[in-house]
Automatic annotation (TrEMBL):
Protein name stated in the entry: RuBisCO transcriptional regulator
Domain of life from the UniProt record: Bacteria
Annotated coiled-coil segments of the chain: none
InterPro entries in the record: HTH-type_LysR_regulators (IPR050950), LysR_HTH_N (IPR000847), LysR_subst-bd (IPR005119), WH-like_DNA-bd_sf (IPR036388), WH_DNA-bd_sf (IPR036390)
Length: 294
């Protein structure tokens, strides 16, 4: 039975996504090409690896075994590339990092600046994901380092504190709830909202509304916290953003800020990896730097 590295990466991507289409996109293959590769893997091994259903795919016992060994191979390959890169003059290395919206927009830029300046031959493949997706991807070996909310299930992942992130409501000074110390999310669901165009944070907020049986009344989506603050300060609606962003724009925009009383709005962000011993040397240095500066 012979599988190449491309086969194993595809299989892990499909297993993590629970869907062949999304798994194929993750490794840059068309659905047709990915399906053909997966069928060839099953034919080569004379074994069924995936249970295919109307809502996606799940792993058979043989598939679980293959996924386990594929993850071990991925980790060993990452370590090999990392160690070889230290002996190769001018060879660049890349560290794969997954993080949620708050980490990417509020905390990472400042913490990464000095480290990246000291390591000019190391690049970062930084992608935004929801916390639950990050935990699954790190467990599956699709990235080396994750930054996520500790409210999600992290299993046996190695965790270190990264930051505390509190979400707040921002609005114009004339908002009827301006001046209150805090407010329940349920109480503002009849308001017009300004949201982020894309991202894990916006999905997280909308999920919380759905849990209450409601849907956010979104007037417009914009790309940045600054754009949100500009709109809400002029009365276009209200928004939910990290408290760090609200503090940063409070002086330049006429904002009122009210804490959300719900537990989900206060999040402890953590660094995660499968194990520091399984990281490449470069990734281990970065992990230690981010943990030290927490």
């Amino acid at each position: 039975m012979r599988f190449d590295l491309a086969d194993l990466r595809l299989f892990l991507a499909v297993a993590e996504a629970g869907n062949i289409t999304r798994g194929a996109a993750e490794v840059g293959l068309s659905l047709a090409a990915a399906s053909e590769r997966l069928r060839a893997m099953e034919a080569t091994g004379n074994v069924m690896l995936l249970e295919r259903g109307r809502r996606g795919v799940s792993l058979t016992q043989a598939g679980e075994a293959l996924a386990h060994h594929a993850r071990l191979i991925e980790r060993q390959m990452a370590r090999m590339r990392g160690e070889l890169s230290e002996h190769a003059k001018g060879l660049r290395a890349t560290i794969q990092v997954l993080a949620n919206t708050a980490a990417i927009m509020e905390f990472l830029p400042g913490r990464l600046a000095s480290w990246m300046a000291m390591h000019p031959t190391i690049d970062l493949d930084l992608k935004e994901r929801q916390s639950a997706e990050i935990a699954r991807a790190i467990s599956a070996g699709h990235a080396e380092i994750g930054i996520l909310s500790d409210a999600v299930e992290t299993g046996d992942l190695h965790l270190r504190h990264f930051a505390t992130d509190r979400l707040v409501i921002v609005a114009g000074k004339q908002w009827r709830f301006a001046g209150q110390a805090n407010i329940a999310f349920r109480e503002v669901l009849d308001q017009d909202f300004i949201g982020l165009m894309d991202g894990a944070l916006q999905s997280h907020i909308e999920d919380q509304a759905m849990r209450l049986g409601r849907k956010l009344k979104l007037r417009v989506r914009v790309r940045s916290f600054e754009g949100i603050c500009r709109l809400v300060s002029n009365g276009a609606g209200i928004a939910i953003i990290p408290a760090t962003a609200a503090r940063r724009f409070r002086r330049s925009h006429a904002l009122s800020e009210v804490r959300i009383a719900d537990a989900w709005a206060s999040r402890r962000l953590v660094l995660c990896c499968q194990s520091p011993d399984w990281l490449t040397n470069q990734a281990r240095h970065l992990f230690a730097h981010l943990a030290l500066n927490a």
